[in-house]
Amino acid sequence: MRHWLVYSILFIICLSCSNEPSGSNTYVPTPSPLQIPQVFEDNILAPIIPVNNIQTEEGIILGKKLFFDTILSENNTQACASCHNPGNAFTDPARFSVGIDGSIGTRNSMPLFNMAWNYDKKFFWDGRVFSLEHQALEPVTNPIEMNNSWETVITRLQNHSEYPKLFEEAFGTTPITKELVTKALAQFERILISANSKFDRYLLEEATLTPQEENGLNVFMDETKGDCFHCHGNPNNPLWTDNLFHNNGLDAVFTDIGLGEITGDPADNGKFKSPSLRNLIFTAPYMHDGRFNSLEEVINHYSEGLQDSPTIDPLMKKVDEGGVHLSDSDKADLKAFLLSLSDPSFINNPAFNNQ
Amino acid sequence: MKKILALALLTFLSFSCSEDNGNNSNEDVSATFSFSHNWDGAEVNNTEFNTIQFTNANGEQMSIEKLRYLISNIRLEKADGETLYTSGHFLVDVTNDVNLVFQPYTAIPKGDYTNVIFTFGFNTEDNYSQTYTDLNAASWNVPDMLGGGYHYMQLEGKFIDNTDTETGYAYHAIRAVDNSDPIGLLFQDTFIDVELGPVSISKDLTFNIDMNIAEWFKNPNLWDLNTLHNMMMPNFNAQITMFQNGQNVFSLNEITE
Asked: How many domains does one find in chain A?
């Protein structure tokens, strides 16, 4: 009897040593870790993946289906992809997107890529939402976008012929919630990785820049010329954005105060997130309000169109002269370099398209 | 015999469950470095940012909108010549109130030290590109055309210029480089080793360090923002002036245990 007691205790201790969760039949979807591009792996910190929403094959499939499904909008006419078109690097070629009832917004739709590397997790032009999971909550109920209610969305999904099974496969639960919807959308959005531009291949020593592109890079990195790198990254930060908020001298008087509306701090008035400079060939028009239709207009703005205001970023130079007045050849070279950051394989990736 | 064997195994397994494989010596302590900021004695933190409320030695009224700087290579010297190097570098971000207090990863043995030293910026050996993913992600890089590596400090804001106009300034400190010949860059070290002096360490302690921001503009070189307010990274002489003015920017306020 004593022997049995000792051996029983021994057996219990052996089991208790394990770090693994106790065995169960709990359903686990198939993990699908992000494929981190070499240029990111080599240079910058790891992406941000919430511990309560790891990437899974089933979650990504569900998120993609939701992203392209008009079921999220009140009158079943609009999907996320309506304003975030894959062919435009997931932005809208229209200056302002049109909502389901014809309402027009005041800001240009943001392109979507490399969002797992937004380390501060502040989304939208004004940073008003924290985390990708929370970001997706808003457009569904926004009156000038999808104008729906989450109750309606959940009812539709719950009664759908396919979605209940897809949610169960993705999350192991049958009740569908708005949190699970946005988790799935976030998983799909996180796989939207763009890192195969000509310049990426140059960094990997697989491509050569033209002399014009090389000089454009120099203009970009030269503090006395473009000085773009302080806010828009550099070859060692290939996100090509700092994901921070700046007043880049668009207006002397603001009609949209951007970050200031969110923080309530007048020092933040007129500040908007620096967008990535990747994929510019696909993402016109430019700026938070889509006021510029061409890269030439953008470059001319920084070169000679700066408008002074109390919160203009100190990095904007010679504001009283409108800017640093780049030469025409430097402007052309800068544009050539900027276009080398575009990644056609991103917009043509079947995994990102509704196929 | 079987009982003894089983109990021995039981004892072994019981102890083997522990995940604590640490071998911290009782002779080791941790040292914390805490950075505070002032303008000639008046406390400065990010709540004082974005408003023109400081006056520099040259008489210009100015504000601060951004202040972040790099601390590296913290080391402790002993009388016998031995030096204990700690690992890690720290990007102190006053703007966002991040990393103002930090602990090097390295445990510090108790004992008497003749000097504690940290580096403002990176020394030449540490200051090369494509190495520090955290600093790359923070866009802390210096362009290759200026030799690469990393910024030492970014201090930005506005000042009232001599036409009474509010004008931006960007006081960025890097390794000084003469780029008059782009293919033959000439460098001069401008990192600053800050000596905190001797300390006897017997328990966990904190070095409370002050940065007097006003010092960057006055001693020994009176800084005229009207003349120098931006494009300072490629300006060799400006970097040397910053280096000279930076010698007395940091001071040890106190050591607390």
From this structure: 2
